[in-house]
Design goal:
It is built from 12 helices and no strands. With 230 residues, it is mainly alpha-helical. Helix 1 packs across helix 7 and helix 8 packs across helix 9.
Length: 230
C-alpha cells in the first residue's frame, strides 16, 4: 500500500498594516519643498527648459510624489507664479486704494516693494518672464485676488486715483499726471534695481547691496513726490 505524504502548510504571513496617510503638517511641508525647488529650477532654466525630474531631485522627492501634488509642469508653474505675483500686486493695489494721504501711500508702496524684493530678489525677473511668455497668467493672478470682483476693484482703484490726481493738479499741488503713468513710474522705480542688479553692481560699482537698498528705501519716496510737484 502506498504511503501517503502529508504536506505541511506554511502559515500565512500576517497582513501588513495599512500605510498611514501623511499628516497635514507633513503634507504642507512636502508641498512647500516642491514649490521652493520648482521656483529655483524655473529661475535657472525657465519653465520651458525645466524638467519635472530635476524639480523632484531638487525637492528630495520621487517623481510619483511630485505628480501626486502637481499633476503637470504647467500646474506647478502656475502655482509658483501665483505665489510669486501674489506677494507684490495685490498689496500695491490695497495701499493705493486706501484713504491715506498720497505721500503716505507712496512711502508704503516703496517700502513694501523694497522689503519684499530684498527677501525674494528673484521675483521681478521671474514674474516678468512668465508674463512675457504666458500673458494669460495675469488672469490667474486676478482670480487669486478675487476674480471679477478683484478686476473691478483694481479698475475702481485706478479711477479713484485718477480723480485724486486730477483734483490735486487743478489745485496746482502737483503737475498733471494720469494714474496709469503714476503707477507705472512708481512700480518701475521700485522694481528696476532688482531686475538690473548685475548691471548696477558691475557698471555702477554697487558693491554693498544692502546699503544701496537702505538708501533707496529712504530716498525714493521723496524723489517720487518731487517728480509730482509743479
Amino acid at each position: 500500500m502506498a504511503k501517503t505524504t502529508t504536506r505541511r502548510r506554511t502559515p500565512a504571513a500576517p497582513p501588513r498594516p495599512a500605510a498611514k496617510a501623511p499628516s497635514r503638517a507633513a503634507d504642507a511641508d512636502t508641498e512647500r519643498r516642491i514649490l521652493d525647488a520648482a521656483r529655483q529650477v524655473f529661475i535657472q532654466r525657465g519653465t520651458a527648459g525645466a524638467r519635472m525630474q530635476e524639480i523632484a531631485a531638487e525637492a528630495g522627492v520621487n517623481q510619483a510624489l511630485l505628480h501626486y501634488y502637481f499633476r503637470s509642469k504647467d500646474a506647478l508653474a502656475l502655482a509658483v507664479f501665483r505665489e510669486a505675483a501674489g506677494r507684490l500686486f495685490p498689496v500695491l493695489m490695497r495701499i493705493l486704494g486706501s484713504d491715506q494721504p498720497l505721500a503716505t501711500r507712496i512711502t508704503q508702496c516703496v517700502h513694501h516693494y523694497i522689503d519684499t524684493l530684498r527677501e525674494h530678489p528673484f521675483l521681478p525677473g521671474y514674474v516678468l518672464a512668465e508674463l512675457t511668455f504666458h500673458p494669460e497668467r495675469i488672469d490667474t493672478l486676478v482670480e487669486q485676488m478675487g476674480g471679477t470682483q478683484a478686476r473691478e476693484a483694481m479698475q475702481a482703484t485706478v479711477a479713484q486715483l485718477d480723480r485724486e490726481l486730477a483734483r490735486a493738479a487743478r489745485a496746482r499741488e502737483i503737475r498733471p499726471m494720469r494714474a496709469q503713468q503714476f503707477i507705472a513710474n512708481l512700480a518701475s522705480l521700485c522694481v528696476f534695481p532688482f531686475a538690473a542688479r548685475p548691471m548696477l553692481r558691475h557698471i555702477l560699482g554697487v558693491d554693498d547691496w544692502d546699503r544701496f537698498l537702505d538708501a533707496r528705501r529712504r530716498d525714493l519716496p521723496e524723489f517720487i513726490l518731487n517728480a509730482l510737484r509743479p
